[in-house]
Design a protein that fits this description.
The protein folds into two domains: 59 residues, Orthogonal Bundle (DNA polymerase, domain 1); 283 residues, TIM Barrel. Helix content is 34%, strand content 19%. The protein has eleven helices and 14 strands. Helix 10 links the parallel strand 13 and strand 14. The longest helix has 19 residues.
């Protein structure tokens, strides 16, 4: 018989469960802290619970744990790990260490596959299978935090929802996982250390504003006009740039969160000074940082990396206009762990 994963329950629901067993209500908070703060994955680890309560819990509930199926370590220290879920689906997460900056970042997946089919993204070539549950997202955080401690003697400092999937199309589970990561009775991280990357889901961005969610936002922009963006990001056909920018302004006005534009530069597509001028015009509505990202090769994609001199000229144009701009060199390219490359390639090759 398949048992229900205990992690689906909120604290009030856990209170109902323990009270039904004739136990005092405070036992639920102990269970909650064992799961979300101490990382317990077995009821026997919960040593301040009676043996009788632990046995009752284990009779009805379980932990459907992630199973590591592959791991690769890049020459730059980046670690990519594939995890098998309870339904045998495979997802990937990435640990990106930058010790000199004291940054140890988790790139976490929020869906199995993706439905957006962005032209430059390996994950977009996969079909969307399903949304990840909040505890599947959180367990990636737990396990990669352990990797960071084991390999670099440092816990994670930042979490970016930039792995497989579109986070805002799994809104409820993503927000529940963020609650667990930031809750003082759980992992206790600051929301300022969390970034949600989105291709531009207008309803989702407005919902973040309405719910007063104060995590950082990274818009996967990659083209500063609708015509070009439609060619590489089909989602733009139903979420036009004007509407996306308006929703981001609404979010900023309500929450004052940090917003960045992620801009992968492609050769002879979006790397001209005319493109830079269009991008500049999109930076005038609220404070925004532009991250220019080098394109990482994806099998079967015709797009190519822009020349370094064009990247530098593009960045200089924005800087001269007063726009905070960085040029980011990708990490983990040699293990297909860089931006846009997550696609379970190891498992498919097997």
């Amino acid at each position: 018989m398949n048992k229900t994963d205990i992690r689906i329950f909120s604290l009030p629901e856990l209170e109902n469960i323990v009270q039904a067993y004739g136990e005092p209500k405070f036992k639920a908070k102990q269970i909650y802290q064992w799961i979300w703060q101490k990382g317990a994955m077995d009821f026997d680890e919960m040593t301040n619970l009676s043996k009788n309560l632990r046995e009752k819990l284990s009779e009805s509930y379980s932990f459907n744990k992630l199973e590591q199926v592959h791991q690769q370590k890049s020459l730059d220290g980046t670690i990519k790990t594939g995890w098998k879920l309870e339904d045998d689906s495979i997802i990937e997460s990435v640990l990106i260490p930058v010790p000199k900056d004291n940054r140890f970042t988790l790139c976490v997946s929020s869906q199995v596959g993706c439905s957006l089919n962005c032209a430059f993204c390996a994950t977009g070539k996969l079909k969307k299978v399903r949304n990840l549950k909040d505890y599947e997202i959180f367990e990636q955080f737990q396990k990669v935090n352990e990797q960071s401690l084991e390999n670099y003697d440092h816990k994670l400092t930042n979490i970016v929802y930039m792995g497989m999937g579109e986070p805002l199309l799994n809104y409820n589970n993503v927000l529940k996982s963020i609650d667990k990561i930031t809750n003082p009775n759980a992992a206790g991280y600051s929301m300022r250390r969390i970034t949600i990357s989105t291709a531009g889901i207008v309803k989702g961005i407005n919902r973040l504003a309405d719910d007063n969610i104060k995590v950082n936002i990274a818009l996967s922009l990659h083209a500063a006009d609708d015509e070009k963006r439609n060619k590489i990001m089909p989602i733009n056909e139903t979420n036009k740039l004007k509407d996306v920018v308006e929703s981001l302004k609404n979010l900023y006005d309500k929450t004052k969160v940090k917003i960045s534009y992620e801009y992968i530069m492609f050769k002879d597509f979006n790397d001209s000074l005319a493109d830079a001028e269009k991008l500049y015009k999109l930076t005038r509505y609220f404070p925004v940082k532009v991250n220019i990202i080098e394109y990482n090769y994806v099998e079967g994609v015709d797009l190519k990396k822009a020349a370094d001199d064009k990247v530098n000229r593009f960045a200089k144009y924005l800087v001269d206009k007063g726009v905070m701009t960085t040029v980011r060199r990708s990490r983990g390219k040699d293990i297909d762990a860089a931006c846009g490359q997550l696609a379970n390639k190891v498992e498919k090759n097997k």
